[in-house]
Amino acid sequence: MKDEVTAGVQFISRLVNRNDKLDKERLEQFGECLISILCERFTRHWYPEKPLKGQAYR
């Protein structure tokens, strides 16, 4: 789950900073916070053995 969430956060971070107006430190902090929030939220809705289960929640 962490790999998928990290990939999504990297995509969102690039969108947020597409004009290079945020410094690298703030962008990394944003990414770390977003990863922890999303991992916490999806913990009980992620089933690697049944990928379709819980996908409506995500």
Question: What's the layout of helices and strands?
Answer:
Elements: H1 2-16, H2 24-42
- SS-based class: mainly alpha
Q: Give the end-to-end Cα distance, rounded to a whole number of Å.
A: 11 Å
Q: How many separate helices?
A: 2
Helix content: 55-70%
The total number of structural domains is: 1
Global mean pLDDT: 86
Residue stretches low in confidence (pLDDT < 50, at least 5 long) are none
How many β-strand stretches?
A: 0
Report the sheet with the most strands, covering strand number, pairing sense and barrel closure.
none
Radius of gyration (Å): 13 Å
Coarse morphology: elongated
Q: Beta-strand percentage?
A: under 5%
Sequence of secondary-structure elements? HH
GO cellular component, one term: cytoplasm
Protein name: Anti-proliferative protein domain-containing protein
Family: Belongs to the BTG family.
Pfam family, one: BTG
Structural description of this entry:
The protein has one domain. The chain starts with a helix and ends in a 16-residue tail after the last helix. The protein is mainly α. The chain has helices at residues 2-16, 24-42. Helix content is 59%, strand content 0%.
Keywords:
58 residues; mainly alpha; 59% helix; 0% strand; Anti-proliferative protein domain-containing protein; BTG; Anti_prolifrtn
Q: Would you kindly provide a brief summary of this structure?
A:
The protein has about 60 residues and is mostly helical. Helices cover about 60% and strands about 0% of the residues.
